[in-house]
Design brief:
Helix content: 10-25%
Largest sheet: 7 strands, mixed
Shape: globular
CATH topology of the largest domain: Rossmann fold
Number of domains: 2
Strand order of the largest sheet: 11-10-9-8-12-13-16
Bound molecules: flavin-adenine dinucleotide, FE2/S2 (inorganic) cluster
Structural class: alpha/beta
Order of helices and strands: EEEEEEHEEHEEEHEHEEEHE
Distance between the termini: 45 Å
CATH class of the largest domain: Alpha Beta
Length: about 270
């Protein structure tokens, strides 16, 4: 196994390091967890942040691939990758001992430590479940009550790794509630009506939009972690604009997701 030295580049607590894949765990035919060791990056990571990974040292794929941090333990951090194209396939098949270039930690984080709520409702769909494990760990340490709502098309899509208090929804009813995860939350909502609740979410845009509509109707604060195609990951290439609206709901230009996100207030996002 090759262990490269860590430090290469550092700017404002963002490191660009050649890191060795310590361990890979293939969870199913398309999703795997990769563990990296870095005493520089791991301690800085906050829930919701991501790393931008150059998956190999050739020109294809040229751009780095952004992945949320899934879990941190000491100086080990993990990412969860779902295969959708060539970059994620290379990562899924990466062998322990191989090296990749990792830039991070990047982006903002979930605002979980605030005192104006007691109950955290985490809503995720598909590989959007990835950042929920690190968030769940931090919420537990912060003494919050936690509920995890996880949705997928069918039972084999549900990957709920190390999550507290699970409630599952599948479109085809093969596991848990039959319907969307937002419909399940709506059904359960009377249980939360008297609690001080905050919603944290990550998943497909359609799910996030339905959740944003629901949270606004019920007047519950809701943070959404968005995805977009990215390039640099650090605000230089302008490759990740997200349209936003103001408090009156009027168009208010755009923000760069890699800098002002990936976590945004659901009320601010124009879903496209
Ligand atoms: C902040 C952030 C965090 C992310 N976290 C994770 C994570 O934890 N785990 C994970 O598996 N994926 C995550 N993604 C998505 C992941 O970055 C993309 O799936 C990946 O870049 C695709 O690369 P590829 O080479 O495999 O696919 P490509 O060959 O580049 O594309 C294949 C297909 O996927 C679509 N696609 C590419 N990038 C994205 C994207 N960002 N969002 C939606 N569709 C895309 C393309 O339009 C194309 O249809 C995250 C994205 C962002 C922006
Ligand atoms: S990815 Fe380059 S500006 Fe956001």
């Amino acid at each position: 196994m090759t262990h490269m030295t860590e430090a290469t580049t550092k700017a404002d607590d963002i490191f660009d390091l050649s890191l060795t894949v310590q361990e890979t765990t293939q969870l199913n035919a398309t999703t795997a967890v990769l563990a990296f060791k870095s005493e520089l990056i791991a301690p800085l990571i906050k829930p919701g942040q991501f790393v931008n990974i150059k998956v190999n040292d050739t020109l294809a794929p040229l751009l780095r691939r952004p992945l949320s941090v899934h879990r941190v333990e000491g100086d080990i951090f993990e990412v969860m990758v779902k295969v959708v194209g060539s970059g994620t396939k290379l990562l899924y098949n990466a062998l322990p001992g191989s090296t990749v270039q990792v830039l991070g930690p990047l982006g903002n984080s979930f605002d979980y430590a605030r005192q104006d709520y007691d109950t955290a409702i985490l809503v995720s769909g598909g590989v959007g479940v990835a950042p929920m494990t690190i968030l769940d760990d931090c919420l537990r340490q912060a003494g919050k009550e936690i509920f995890n709502y996880v949705g997928g098309r069918t039972a084999s899509d549900i990957i709920a790794r190390k999550l507290t208090n699970l409630r599952i929804a599948t479109d085809d009813g093969s596991q848990g509630f039959k319907g969307t995860v937002v419909a399940l939350l709506e059904q359960d909502f009377p249980e939360f009506a008297k609690k001080r609740v905050r919603i944290f979410s990550c998943g497909p845009n359609r799910m996030l939009q339905a959740l944003a509509d629901f949270s606004m109707k019920k007047n519950i604060p809701c943070e959404v972690s968005l995805e977009s195609v990215m390039g640099c990951g650090i605000g230089i290439c302008y490759g990740c604009p997200v349209h936003v609206k103001n408090e009156q709901g009027e168009p208010d230009g755009h923000k760069l997701l890699c800098q002002h996100g990936p976590v945004m207030d659901a009320k601010q996002v124009v879903f496209e």
